[in-house]
Amino acid sequence: MTQRICFTLQVRPDRLEEYRERHADVWPDMRKALSESGWRNYSLFLREDGLLIGYLECDDFDAAREAMNRTEVNARWQAEMAPLFAELDSGAADEDMSPLPEVFHLP
């Protein structure tokens, strides 16, 4: 069964343009790792105040996240992206993703 995952993070308002630029050209090996780890239909939406909404589909979110955490490319990406975020408890955005509970879905 496919899981639909939605999460929020906060991008630092003074780093919004850099965040957009980095995501305009995501590394090919990062894209490949996400796909191979089971991340599908993955989208990010960014509001002007830095609120980031992420959405993805996968078979098992915990397994997909663990698979990404085992890749070298993810470690590099997270290290480079961490300074763009505000209020990271873990120091890495992918570890601070907390899925929001789904309250409605129209298939």
UniProtKB/TrEMBL annotation:
<protein>
    <submittedName>
        <fullName>L-rhamnose mutarotase</fullName>
    </submittedName>
</protein>
<dbReference type="InterPro" id="IPR011008">
    <property type="entry name" value="Dimeric_a/b-barrel"/>
</dbReference>
<dbReference type="InterPro" id="IPR008000">
    <property type="entry name" value="Rham/fucose_mutarotase"/>
</dbReference>
<dbReference type="Pfam" id="PF05336">
    <property type="entry name" value="rhaM"/>
</dbReference>
